Amino acid sequence: MKPGIHPAYGPVVFRDRAANYAFLTRSTMTSDKTIEWEDGDTYPVVDVEISHVSHPFYTGTARVLDTAGRVERFERRYGRRGAN
Q: What is the 3-state secondary structure of the chain?
């Protein structure tokens, strides 16, 4: 790798405010805010709106849409149009 062209890669805490969950990982993201982690060290913290803890896909709370029923309801309401 060429020196001086890559961003710094180091430990960063990502904090999901919606779920009150944080995890320590490595990233090139930086932040002016810091947090003291469980190991006693201080790391930069990046606040995120959603993570695997609060996202509906991972938590199983996603709504399943009945698309066939919606199409039938639309056709009942507005009638089926014939091909001209």
A: CCCCCCCCCEEEEEEECCCCEEEEEEECCCCCCEEECCCCCEEEEEEECCCCCCCHHHHCCCCCCCHHHHHHHHHHHHCCCCCC
Alpha-carbon span 70 to 42, nearest angstrom = 52
Confidence of residue 60 (pLDDT cuts 50, 70, 90): low
Average pLDDT of span 58-76: 68
The residue type found at 46 is: V
Q: Is the pTM of this model over 0.85?
A: no
> Between the CA of residue 76 and those of 54, 68, 80, 82, 84, what are the distances in Å?
38, 12, 8, 14, 20
Compute CA distances 73 → 51, 64, 83, whole Å.
36, 17, 20
- The answer to whether residues 8 and 15 touch, using CB atoms and an 8 Å cutoff, is no
